[in-house]
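User: Design a sequence. Structure:
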């Protein structure tokens, strides 16, 4: 949506339209254009035999569900990888990140937990 169109809608409705948090645009069922483009590259690489077992949106448990002292549950902590595939016999966990989202505290903690819990270094593209 262009800035001009956003202004038209804002004026017509009298409501402020907030842009997406990281300025990304959804594309083809993916959270960003960059992520959709990377998927297409990986699909081509899989068809060419360079990688195998390509999957998207794969969940990894970092901290299991637990019960607190008062009996209430704490939700599990999970990391959702953009893409997982096998390259040269090794599993690769890949995440499409902008320079801004690479510095987010939640992501950094989950990246470190992936290494600690699963022994997996996330490949950032």
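Assistant: Done.
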């Amino acid at each position: 949506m262009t800035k001009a169109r956003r202004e038209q809608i804002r004026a017509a409705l009298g409501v402020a339209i907030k842009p997406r948090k990281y300025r990304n645009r959804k594309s083809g069922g993916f959270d960003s254009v960059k992520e959709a483009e990377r998927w297409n590259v990986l699909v081509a690489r899989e068809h060419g035999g360079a990688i195998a077992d390509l999957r998207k949106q794969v969940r990894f448990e970092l901290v299991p569900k637990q019960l607190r002292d008062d009996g209430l549950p704490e939700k599990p902590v999970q990391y959702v990888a953009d893409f997982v595939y096998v390259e040269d016999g090794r599993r690769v966990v890949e995440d499409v990140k902008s320079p801004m989202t690479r510095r987010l505290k939640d992501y950094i903690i989950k990246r470190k937990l992936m290494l600690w819990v699963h022994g997996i270094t996330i490949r950032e593209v």
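Residues 29-65+76-125 form a domain with the Trna Endonuclease; Chain: A, domain 1 fold (CATH 3.40.1350.10). The first strand starts at residue 52 and ends at 63.
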